[in-house]
Write a structure and sequence with these properties.
Largest sheet of chain A: 7 strands, mixed
Radius of gyration of chain A: 14 Å
Largest interface: A-B, 21 and 25 residues
Distance between the termini of chain A: 40 Å
Number of helices of chain A: 0
Distance between the termini of chain B: 36 Å
Order of helices and strands of chain B: EEEEEEEEEE
Oligomer: heterodimer
Largest sheet of chain B: 6 strands, mixed
Number of strands of chain A: 11
Radius of gyration of chain B: 13 Å
Structural class of chain B: mainly beta
Helix content of chain B: under 10%
Shape of chain B: globular
Chain lengths: 121, 111
C-alpha cells in the first residue's frame, strides 16, 4: 500500500526558509517520478515542482522558481522541498504526489495528507 | 500560459447526472491528457479519471471522462449522483513548458 507522509511544515516568518520532507513507502521509490503540489487556504490546487526518478530532471512552477528547490534521496525513500525567501502567499498545504502512468507527463496517482506551511510575521 | 477554466460550482439532485466542463485557453486540449481529481473537505485529492477517460481501480463506472475537440474542452460526467459525490473536482493537464496545470476547481453540491 502506497504511503506518502509529509513533514516539516509550520509557522515561519517572511523571508525565512523551511524544508519539507515526504517519506515514501509501499512502492519502489527510486522507480517513480515525484511532485509537490500546494493548496492555499480555501483555494485550488497549484503544481509546485517535479523531479524524475533518478533526479536528473526537475522543473519548478514560475511562482517558486529561484526560491524553492525539489530534491530526493532514493537511499532514504524521501522527497524534499527546500523553500527559501518565503512569502505570505506561499502559505498553503503542501502535498507530495507520486506520478502514475507510463506516459511522459503522467498524472498524480497517489497523494500524501499534506503539511501546512504558514508564512506570517 | 496555458490555463484550464472550470465552472465555480454546480448542483444537482441525487440520482441525476451532472457534467463538469474544463476548457483549455489555447492550443488543442486533445494534444495532452486530461485528468480529474476529487477532493472532499479536509482530505487530500484522489484521482477519478486519468488519461482523458480511464478510471483507477475502485472508482465506480458512474464516473466518466471525455474530450470535445471543437470546444477545446474536457468533461467529467457523474451519473446516478450520490450524496457522497459532493466534493470539489479539479481537472489537470500540462503546458508546453514542462509545467503541470490545474483548473480552478468546481464545487459539486448534491442536494
Amino acid at each position: 500500500q502506497v504511503q506518502l507522509v509529509e513533514s516539516g511544515g509550520g509557522v515561519v516568518q517572511p523571508g525565512k526558509s523551511l524544508k519539507l520532507s515526504c517519506a515514501a513507502s509501499g512502492f519502489t521509490f527510486s522507480s517513480y517520478d515525484m511532485h509537490w503540489v500546494r493548496q492555499a487556504p480555501g483555494k485550488g490546487l497549484e503544481w509546485v515542482a517535479f523531479m524524475s526518478r533518478d533526479g536528473t530532471n526537475k522543473y519548478h512552477a514560475d511562482s517558486v522558481k529561484g526560491r524553492f528547490t525539489i530534491s530526493r534521496d532514493n537511499s532514504k525513500n524521501t522527497l524534499y522541498l527546500q523553500m527559501n525567501s518565503l512569502r505570505p502567499e506561499d502559505t498553503a498545504v503542501y502535498y507530495c504526489a507520486k506520478k502514475g502512468s507510463g506516459s511522459y507527463f503522467g498524472y498524480f496517482q497517489n497523494w500524501g495528507q499534506g503539511s501546512l506551511v504558514t508564512v506570517s510575521s | 500560459n496555458f490555463m484550464l477554466t472550470q465552472p465555480h460550482s454546480v448542483s444537482e439532485s441525487p440520482g441525476k447526472t451532472i457534467t463538469i466542463s474544463c476548457t483549455g485557453s489555447s492550443g488543442s486540449i486533445a494534444s495532452n491528457y486530461v485528468q480529474w481529481y476529487q477532493q472532499r473537505p479536509g482530505s487530500a485529492p484522489t484521482t477519478v479519471i486519468f488519461e482523458d477517460k480511464l478510471r483507477p481501480s475502485g472508482v465506480p463506472d458512474r464516473f466518466s471522462g471525455s474530450i470535445d475537440s471543437p470546444s477545446n474542452s474536457a468533461s467529467l460526467t457523474i451519473s446516478g449522483l450520490k450524496t457522497e459525490d459532493e466534493a470539489d473536482y479539479y481537472c489537470q493537464s500540462y503546458d508546453s513548458s514542462n509545467h503541470w496545470v490545474f483548473g480552478g476547481g468546481t464545487k459539486l453540491t448534491v442536494l
